[in-house]
Please model this.
Amino acid sequence: MSVIIILLIISISIAAVFLAAFLWSVKTGQFEDDFSPASRILFDDKTKPTN
Amino acid sequence: MQEKLAGKPAEAQQQYCFHCGGKCRGTSLKSGENVFCCEGCRMVYRILNDHQLCDYYELNNRPGQTQVHEFRSDKFAFLDNEAISSGLISFRDENHTHLTFYIPQIHCSSCLYLLEKLYRLDSSVISSIVNFERREVSLIFNSETGTVRKMAELLNSIGYEPYISLNDLNEKKPAVNRQLIYQLGVAGFCFGNIMLMSFPEYFGIEAGEEGLQNIFRWLNFALALPVLLYSSQPFFASTIKSLKHRYLHIDTPIALAILITFIRSSYELFSGAGAGYFDSMTGIVFFMLAGRILQDKTYRQLSFDRDYTSYFPIAVTVKKAKGEYGIQNTEYRKTENETENEKPEEELAVPLPDIKVGDTIIIHNEELIPVDGLLTRGTAVIDYSFVTGESIPQTKNIGELVYAGGRQTGGRMEILVMKEVAQSYLTGLWSKSGKGGSEIKRSFIHRISKWFTWVVFVIAAATAIYWQLNDPLKTWPAVTAIFIIACPCALLLANSFTNGNILRILSRNGFFLRNAQTIENIASIDHIVFDKTGTLTATGGTGITYEGIAPSHLSIQMIRSAVINSVHPLSKALFSYLDTTHPILTPVFFQETAGHGIEAVFGNSRILLGSAYFVCGNGNKNENQTAVYFSLNGIQQGRFVFSNQYRADLGKLIRNLKSRYRLSIVSGDHNAEQSALKRIFGEETSIYFNQRPTDKLHYTERLQKQGARVMMIGDGLNDAGALMQSDCGIAVSESTSYFTPASDAILKASAFQKLATFIRMCRANRTIVSISFMVSIAYNIAGLFFAVQGNLSPLIAAILMPSSSFTILLITFGSTNYLAARLRL
Model:
């Protein structure tokens, strides 16, 4: 029985972490713009201006 | 710049500009291997090339915007004005300044790439981040080395001119409301965990494990609390509001069901009788919130409530005697004024709201006239198509009154301000335009929901009476069970998911609705009123036909060579119409009389181009057609008639609509197009010309008084009143980032021919909702069968509730998508 309780605590806290991550990502506007981050990652800087 | 090239013989093979993809008239403008259509495009390319930013051209093929427009060097001088620039800046300290510009030209990943590499072009830029959805770039720059004006000029130099309107000066835009999404997140978390921990209840638990069962029940209770207290707030808020105003809101039965379920479940838990229905309760809240979010999806790049402030410029150039405005205004001066006048005058950029009657303002080519005033200097060739619907620009002479809202196309002019901005004719249109949204329209869902709620109350009362007489102990469980199982959430779910999906399908096709209610409004209309210019005709699309003696090659060449020297819009249109490969001739003599025509001499041939009066000497003043007459050596040859070009497939669309709706046209233009419109629309369509904005509004009102439900389709400010007055106003726009008057929906011009299909889709809405409602009734009856007997087990509730929700999701999504596929949307 005690094992189940430990598992219960773990599972709920993991779920809570995901909830917190979701709320944080909405708050910081990560769902606002679904085009730029996806394209931005594909730009590679061939020529660094100053090194 | 473009014009200089026009005479060069074109290559056998058409070349396209490396920057913008426009047609090149020759190959003289080159940089390396690449050909450009104009100096502006080449300049942008060179800037990018110098800074090793040519990846811009590799990411997308010819991603640039055409740069043929000329820019004045002091175009952004108004940004030196502290009052204006501080309105744009969001944050500033001694090191950093944060600033956001709206740039409608942003359209692809190349734009993104370039705009985020601004720091390479200008060292004062610290960072620049693009928000693609909003078409905005947020800049952080060094407060010491950079200014707002420099930033605007930097963006302009690479072809991304920021759009700064009067609206930006006003208070900050409200932050996006994400409350509903947080509530959904919390509800989803609690719902999922409660379902998981309810499994022992569904399938039974061993006798020895009852302690564990209690823990599960209490955890469920703990998880249900945030749903009740936080996630269901929207339902309670609207219920309380509606009760205060003494009517039954659509959310009231939902709030009641949530509350009753929670109280009953808590009672069961505390008395140790059972586990309660926390799973059903949180499930209802979760699904309802999801449906609501889907339905309330907003389009970030669109605004349905724009007023004149987002159309007008933020500042204008005012001519003032020196020192009249306070020192807080940064001044800049043109030397030409000093030589012209003995008394030193200066040109100041003044924020638009500060313009006073009696000021003299300067309007440059391609600028908007923001006030009503008298023309005091220069030639006014004003394009009023957006304001009045007239397709051809008007010429005004010195001393004549010019109205706000037109766009100057005839070079620099000066205007004496007669009325302040807030009182001009154009801004008056907004304040005049009716009740602003008319009375609250009630969805048919409200009626069904009301009826449904009464039926549930009757069943509950009957059950209560029955059990009171037979077994009073069972009254309480039976009645509460009825409210739990028979809440109209399935109905609301069906409605919000159908609406949400239809909105999504329509927006994918270029038709954006303000809200879900608009779907029903569109479905209910029976009369469609069209505007002509910009709605039925494409903006700038003028067709030219020649009538008279066929001109020789030489004549054509001479006409082209004459009109190239004129800035008049008709000359420009004529020039591009007569697109030949022959070289441009240089006239021996050239004279343009503003508002009348052109006289030019080539060798020993003299040609006249212009109004009938100018060319033939006997003009018909009341002529309705727009035409340019042409004479060679004093003998009249013929005329070029300018007519409108209607949108593609207009005839087919009208035939489609005519079978079901009554149609009318109200146009601000003259009646030259009457016969052409009659051919397309048929005899039974009423067509009105020379309609002022208020006439359009009154026409709509008159139709409504006769009992018609009117859809108004327009594009310009002249339609603003009628759009608001109508039951459903649709604004047509060439691009969604352009300004559109306030309306219920925005239709992309490219999707105009699909209008009939869109209306069909909206009409299907009610059928789909009704079908899903029937299905949910079946589930309800099954649930009620158990509920009235007083033995609704949590298991049955837990099976019925999600399965009815899922069935409804399947039906609504399936049928709307199927319909869309059949209508080829």
